[in-house]
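Weekly sync, protein design subgroup
Attendees: M.S., D.O., the rotation student, P.L. (late)

Item 1: inverse folding check
M.S. brought a backbone from last month's batch and wanted to see whether the design step gives back something sensible before we order anything. D.O. pointed out we never logged the input encoding, so this time it goes straight into the notes. Structure tokens as presented (469 positions):
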């Protein structure tokens, strides 16, 4: 028996003599005491006595993936884990993103679609093919619910497409006792309470809006296409709608400068809506593919510095501090498995306004990277090539984070200088620094959730956990 290469031990937390163990393969998180930590340090020692409780604890850790019998078993379990990620799927839900149009009323400085912008809307004819494709997928795979996320361009520039697809699919799903929900990812400029109320009747459950700071912080990155700021109107629309629907916020940052995020959180707080908002997502601004037919002509390549390990870790730590200071709980784990959608056989897809299927939104506008079409039943050869990349085989199999990343983001490999999808995109240096912090935060959140459940408040647990003593 040995500690798995895919196990992380965070020592002396939550207090001295208590230690956290985490498996990046099984995502088990547990707490062990000093005695069990000592047992783990002496695994394989012939002179170390194990009593019955020690053996029972080791058996538990083995079942949870913290321990393995030997290197051969570890290799086998890793390969099966990655195979399941590639080919497996959950029948519980089909998630599909639909572009109602590539057109947009904004001219964002970092938009990955800008170089391929076309003023084409999702036509009624293509909507009918989309509907047929959705029904076919639901029946073929036996999904128990359907979630549609409307996207663009700016999706609210083509509301008739949202009305038609959602009304048809809502009725179809209800007739079969299948769940149905929709969400909208919008720049927020056209959002009104009337639109929210209309779409709530079609099972709208959430809206996500991008806001990059306060005033000029935002307007310099996200101006109107014809010129002019957008911040004030977006904020007013959020204030008008935040009590009607779940509104999440997406924030971009660059160069490690998180001051705009701090100013935005303070502004939301001053308006009295900070704690009414849903999940706040933050991400660095990254390079994008070149124009149509020229993906290798990378745009804004200097933005790669935003994702450099030292810059990124420093930014994430500071943002987490800001969220803690504001009393905003994290709703997801920093240690969750995050597999590039290009390499998954049955993951979610994005349908563009011409009915083409994509596995990654950042490839939109480049038909050569489409994996199929709603007029066809199966993915094309490009989809199969993406699925079979298996870049993880170029990584050391004893890398602690390999079960979580499978070799990393294919897009970041492309825009990061390689200009192809066939090499790993490694964030091990970043994860080495951030993983202990993420695990501590996951543990604290789990404890808080358990405390609330004991008080009768229902809260889902985000990680599996056990206290092993």
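Designed sequence read out in the meeting:
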């Amino acid at each position: 028996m040995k500690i798995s290469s895919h196990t992380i031990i965070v020592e002396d937390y939550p207090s001295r003599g208590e230690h956290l163990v985490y498996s990046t393969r099984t995502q088990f998180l547990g707490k062990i005491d000093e005695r069990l930590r000592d047992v783990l340090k002496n695994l394989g020692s012939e002179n170390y006595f194990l009593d019955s409780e020690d053996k029972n604890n080791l058996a538990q850790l083995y079942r949870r993936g913290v321990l393995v019998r030997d290197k051969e078993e570890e290799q086998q379990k890793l390969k099966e884990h990655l195979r399941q990620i590639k080919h497996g799927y959950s029948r519980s839900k089909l998630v599909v993103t639909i572009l109602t149009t590539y057109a947009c009323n904004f001219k964002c400085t970092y938009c990955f679609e800008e170089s391929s912008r076309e003023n084409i809307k999702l036509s009624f004819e293509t909507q009918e093919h989309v509907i047929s494709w959705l029904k076919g997928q639901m029946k073929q795979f036996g999904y128990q619910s359907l979630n549609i996320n409307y996207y663009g361009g700016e999706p609210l520039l083509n509301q008739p497409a949202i009305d038609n697809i959602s009304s048809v699919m809502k009725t179809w799903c209800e007739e079969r006792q299948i769940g149905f929900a929709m969400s909208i990812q919008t720049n927020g400029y056209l959002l009104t309470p009337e639109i929210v109320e209309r779409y709530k009747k079609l099972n709208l459950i959430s809206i996500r809006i991008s806001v990059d700071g306060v005033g000029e912080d935002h307007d310099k990155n996200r101006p109107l296409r014809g010129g002019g700021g957008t911040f004030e109107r977006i904020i007013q629309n959020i204030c008008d709608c935040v009590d009607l629907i779940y509104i999440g916020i997406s924030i971009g940052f660059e160069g490690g400068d998180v001051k705009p995020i701090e100013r935005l959180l303070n502004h939301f707080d001053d308006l009295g809506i900070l704690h009414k908002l849903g999940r706040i997502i933050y991400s660095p601004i990254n390079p994008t593919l070149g124009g149509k037919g020229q993906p290798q002509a990378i745009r804004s390549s200097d933005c790669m510095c935003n994702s450099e390990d030292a810059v990124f870790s420093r930014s994430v730590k500071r943002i987490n501090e800001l969220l803690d200071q504001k009393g905003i709980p994290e709703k997801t784990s920093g240690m969750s498995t995050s597999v590039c959608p290009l390499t998954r056989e049955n993951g979610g897809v994005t349908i563009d306004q011409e009915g083409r299927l994509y596995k990654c939104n950042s490839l939109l506008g480049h038909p050569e990277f489409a994996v199929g079409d709603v007029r066809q039943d199966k993915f094309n050869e490009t989809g199969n090539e993406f699925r079979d990349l298996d870049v993880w085989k170029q990584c050391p199999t004893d890398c602690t984070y390999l079960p979580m990343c499978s070799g990393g983001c294919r897009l970041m490999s492309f825009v990061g200088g390689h200009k192809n999808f066939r090499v790993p995109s490694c964030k091990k240096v970043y994860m080495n620094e951030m993983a202990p912090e993420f695990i501590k935060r996951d543990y604290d959140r789990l404890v808080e959730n358990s405390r609330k459940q004991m008080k009768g408040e229902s809260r889902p647990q985000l990680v599996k956990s056990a206290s092993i003593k």
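Discussion: The chain has a mean pLDDT of 91. Residues 37 and 185 are 46 Å apart (CA to CA).
Action: P.L. to compare against the previous round before Friday.
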